[in-house]
Give the backbone structure.
Amino acid sequence: METTDLSHHISSRFNEDLESVRADLLRMGGLVEAQLQKSLAALADEDSALAADVVRDDAQVNRLEVEIDEACLRILATRAPAAGDLRLVVAITKAITDLERIGDEARKIAHIALRLASLERPADRYREIRHLGRLVEVMVHEALDAFARMDSDAALRVPQHDLQVDEEYESIQRQCVTFMMEDPRQIRRMLDVTWAARALERVGDHAKNIAEYVIYMVHGQDVRHTRLEEVQSRLRARSEGGAP
Amino acid sequence: METTDLSHHISSRFNEDLESVRADLLRMGGLVEAQLQKSLAALADEDSALAADVVRDDAQVNRLEVEIDEACLRILATRAPAAGDLRLVVAITKAITDLERIGDEARKIAHIALRLASLERPADRYREIRHLGRLVEVMVHEALDAFARMDSDAALRVPQHDLQVDEEYESIQRQCVTFMMEDPRQIRRMLDVTWAARALERVGDHAKNIAEYVIYMVHGQDVRHTRLEEVQSRLRARSEGGAP
């Protein structure tokens, strides 16, 4: 397992600064995870109060994004970090954008939950959506965990859920079209279900982005727009070749 | 009009580096604008070849994103830029992410165009979508133009199109639901039209993000998650107070 170690700094103030933004990112991550989980529960249980919670939490997530960004910029301006430290700071400024967008998607799901709460609840309590939701919750959790431990092996596992997410997403879309055709009175509800599925699919994309920043942070390799197999073989070649 | 001037550097190499990433960003912007424009033309004219073009261009946009990001990181690592220069570099790393996402949305519209090309073309050639498309094209163009001239006044005008985009988007959604209810055979096509509208709405969001980075770059104020009126009055207060 390859990890990066923060404890090598001569300046302990610098260490503290880096640790502090990293801790803030994880705090922001925890908040966003809670938003996602609450938005799905609000949908399944038609719990309008919970949905309103998610919408309210959004302001805090946005505030954290701006604060962390400012802290990163301060570090860049005053510490001029190099190598791994620079990559850590850059990875954080990028990851918080994805976290904020996950929060946005959770808020959209909460809005959908508020709309659907006024309709009769289906017997299955949106089973497929809950299933897709659990899949992407795992992706977000694993990505944040990989970030916390700076563990690129763990980060590489995040995109492996992708195929399952795609299958689940496609199946929900097909089902919604079928329901709409069978009963046009269901069109509005089914549109909301397709929007919720789309929002969850995007959450999975953002989790993958965060995982990519972890790999970049640890290895200095930009793996965006690269197939997973390619990334794995590249990293394997580097570690076998003894490259840094 | 407040602008930032790049010509003050003692090191002409540093100047060149900054100018070069800025030029690359604008080149990437031009490419993405072309993608968007082509994807809309592909939809209106059921031009599958044009749609395939957009999908193909995506690889180039992705490559540019990675290249520009690497160049920015090199500047941060070797030049340790301060103040306005640092903000310029950070703004570029953020803006390219939004540009890449605009390219993604254009690619989605191109895919929709490919699917719809097999259906009978409606007499109005997706008039509403084309209209919404023109609105967000203007937003993207204005945002890139503000970036090129580092003109925060021009950047402030970008979000002013928002209300119109929202109205247009809502009207398309309502219309699609009506069509679906009237004729369930239209459901698949109308779903594609709603996806295209959603993609365009997101393009407008990304254009707004880019405009916000311009304001941040010029004034050092993070204006994300802030209402436009609030931003305007803050900037006015600063310029009247003679703050930097």
Observations:
- Chain A touches chain B at residues 59, 62-63, 65-66, 69-70, 73, 76-77, 80, 82-83, 86-87, 90, 93-94, 97, 177, 180-181, 184, 187-188, 191, 194, 198, 222, 224-225 (CB under 8 Å).
- The two ends of chain A are 14 Å apart (CA to CA).
